[in-house]
Amino acid sequence: MKALGKNSITVAIDAGLGVLSWALWIALALLFLFGIPALIVDQFYDLSWVAKAPPPALVWPFAIMFAIFVLAAQTVISRLRKIFTTLIAGDPFVPENAVHMRTIWIVLVVFEVLNMGFSSGALMAQKWFGGALAGLKGEFHINWSLWMAVIVLIVLTEIFREGAKLRQEQKLTI
């Protein structure tokens, strides 16, 4: 199977990204339509016969972080799909692809910094409040594979930028 053009692996990946995008939106909708309201109702009515609800001090930050994750993932997915559109058309070296790739690595960096801060905050809360926040697992870790992927994306962004520049110069050459 070929990598570029119609009937290529790129078309299949693009379709998979579309499905993933919808699944993330559905998961976020389920969280905010059912999960959060159930937590609020549990504060007024005993719903322990259904399930033991986690403390609100845990749910709200995790819900917010999940929403940020979904928004970051949607940004990355939409930019990847725009890149794949040019790959399917057989024209990958367009200036917009470098912009899309730069946006992707910036979103990944911002999300990972937020994630590291969130994990560190959970760790500090666990140390400060001890047993009061049972079930809170905070740890500080560096996601080395993500940071390596960001470095690769930075290099690929420059390759796409240079490729687009060379392609433009070639078009101007008689």
What's the short story on this structure?
The chain is built from four helices and no strands.
Give the rounded overall mean pLDDT. 82
* Structure summary, number of beta strands: 0
What is the rounded distance between the termini? Answer: 35 Å
Fraction of residues in helix:
over 70%
The dominant shape is: elongated
Question: What labels describe this entry?
Answer:
single chain, mainly alpha, 174 residues, 4 helices, elongated
Task: Explain this structure.
There is one protein chain. The chain is mainly α and 174 residues long. It has one domain. Helix content is 76%, strand content 0%. It has helices at residues 9-44, 56-88, 95-129, 144-172. The two termini are 35 Å apart.
Topology at a glance:
Layout: H1 9-44, H2 56-88, H3 95-129, H4 144-172
Helix pairs in contact: 1-2, 2-3, 3-4
